[in-house]
C-alpha cells in the first residue's frame, strides 16, 4: 500500500483480503485472511498447503494472487491447474465505494508480501451553478453515472477496450462534490452521444453526455467539472490522473503526492 491509512482500514475490517494460489501440484481457492491483533499477523489459523511440503515435493514455485476486500461471492472462481490465471467477475455495488485491490507474486520463499494496486476506476464530479440553478440546489442534488456495472477481471486486469455503453445508473452521491468507483470500461459516444452523468434536483433530471469515445482505465482518477443549468449540463474541464491509494474511494480532494 502507498497509504498507511488504507492498510490500517484493511486491518480493522472484518473482511480482510482473499487469496488464490496454486501450481501443477495443488491449488487453494479464495482463502480469507484477516488481521490478528494478538499475533500481529495476517492469517486464519489454516494451512494453505500441507505443512510437510518440501522443495522436492511441492512442485516448485507457485503463483499467489491476492485481492481486497474479501468476498465470499468469489468462492466458485477456480484457479487453473497451472495456477496461471484467476478470473473474478466483479459487480460494482450500489454503494459505489467498494474498491477492488489486487496484488500478485510468485512464491519461492516461506514468507511473502504483496503490493496492491487498484483494479477499478475512480470518478470525481464537481458541479458549479449555471443559469437557473443555485448553489443551494446543487447542495441537495443527487448524482449518478451511467456505466457498465459488471466486468470480468483476469489476474487483476479488466479489459477496458470492450465497448459497453453504460447499462445502469450507479449512484455516486449527494451534493456539488461527489466521488465514486466504476469498473474499467469503454463507452462509445462518437457515433451516438451517450448519457453519462445525471443530476437530479427534486423532480428534474439533467444529463451530461459523452460525445466522443471514452476509456476508463484501472488505477486512474477522472475528475469532471460540470456546469449545471436548467437547459442542461456542459463540460468545464476534465482531468485524468493516477489514482493514488491515499485518496480513498469517496474523496473529492486531490490525492497527495507520494514521496
Describe this structure in words.
With 259 residues, the chain is mainly beta. It contains two helices and 19 strands. The protein has helices spanning 4-12, 135-139; strands spanning 17-22, 27-36, 41-43, 62-68, 87-91, 101-107, 117-118, 121-129, 142-147, 150-154, 157-158, 168-174, 177-182, 185-187, 194-201, 204-210, 214-216, 220-229, 232-242. A hairpin with a 2-residue loop joins strand 18 (220-229) and strand 19 (232-242). It is elongated and about 65 Å long.
Question: For the terminal residues, how far apart are their CA atoms?
Answer: 13 Å
- The number of strands is 19
What does the average pLDDT come to? 77
* DSSP strand content: over 45%
Give helix and strand order, one letter per element, not per position.
HEEEEEEEEHEEEEEEEEEEE
Shape: elongated
Sheet with the most strands: spatial strand order: 3-2-1-4-6-7
Radius of gyration: 21 Å
Q: Helix fraction?
A: under 10%
Major sheet: 6 strands, antiparallel
| Number of H- or I-type helical stretches | 2
Structural class: mainly beta
Low-confidence stretches: 50-57, 246-259
Topology:
Elements: H1 4-12, E1 17-22, E2 27-36, E3 41-43, E4 62-68, E5 87-91, E6 101-107, E7 117-118, E8 121-129, H2 135-139, E9 142-147, E10 150-154, E11 157-158, E12 168-174, E13 177-182, E14 185-187, E15 194-201, E16 204-210, E17 214-216, E18 220-229, E19 232-242
Parallel strand pairs: 8-18
Antiparallel strand pairs: 1-2, 1-4, 2-3, 4-6, 5-10, 6-7, 8-13, 9-12, 9-15, 10-11, 14-17, 15-16, 18-19
Amino acid at each position: 500500500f502507498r497509504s498507511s491509512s488504507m492498510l490500517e482500514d484493511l486491518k480493522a475490517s472484518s473482511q480482510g483480503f482473499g487469496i488464490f494460489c496454486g501450481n501443477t501440484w495443488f491449488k487453494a481457492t479464495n482463502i480469507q485472511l484477516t488481521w490478528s491483533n494478538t499475533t500481529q499477523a495476517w492469517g486464519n489459523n489454516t494451512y494453505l498447503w500441507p505443512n510437510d511440503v518440501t522443495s522436492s515435493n511441492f512442485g516448485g514455485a507457485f503463483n499467489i494472487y491476492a485481492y481486497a476486500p474479501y468476498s465470499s461471492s468469489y468462492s466458485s472462481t477456480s484457479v487453473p491447474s497451472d495456477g496461471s490465471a484467476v478470473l473474478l467477475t466483479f459487480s460494482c455495488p450500489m454503494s459505489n465505494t467498494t474498491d477492488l485491490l489486487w496484488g500478485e507474486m510468485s512464491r519461492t520463499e516461506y514468507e511473502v508480501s504483496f503490493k496492491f494496486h487498484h483494479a477499478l476506476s475512480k470518478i470525481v464530479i464537481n458541479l458549479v451553478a449555471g443559469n437557473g440553478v443555485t448553489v443551494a440546489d446543487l447542495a441537495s442534488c443527487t448524482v449518478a453515472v451511467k456505466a457498465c456495472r459488471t466486468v470480468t477481471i483476469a489476474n487483476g486486469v479488466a479489459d477496458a477496450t470492450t465497448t459497453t455503453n453504460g447499462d445502469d445508473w450507479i449512484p455516486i452521491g449527494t451534493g456539488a462534490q461527489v466521488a465514486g468507483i466504476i469498473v474499467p470500461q469503454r463507452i462509445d459516444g462518437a457515433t451516438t452521444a451517450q448519457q453519462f452523468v445525471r443530476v437530479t434536483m427534486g423532480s428534474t433530471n439533467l444529463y451530461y453526455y459523452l460525445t466522443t469515445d471514452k476509456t476508463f482505465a484501472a488505477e486512474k482518477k477522472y475528475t469532471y467539472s460540470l456546469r449545471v443549468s436548467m437547459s442542461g449540463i456542459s463540460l468545464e474541464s476534465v482531468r485524468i490522473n493516477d489514482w493514488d491509494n491515499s485518496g480513498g474511494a469517496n474523496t473529492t480532494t486531490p490525492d497527495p503526492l507520494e514521496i
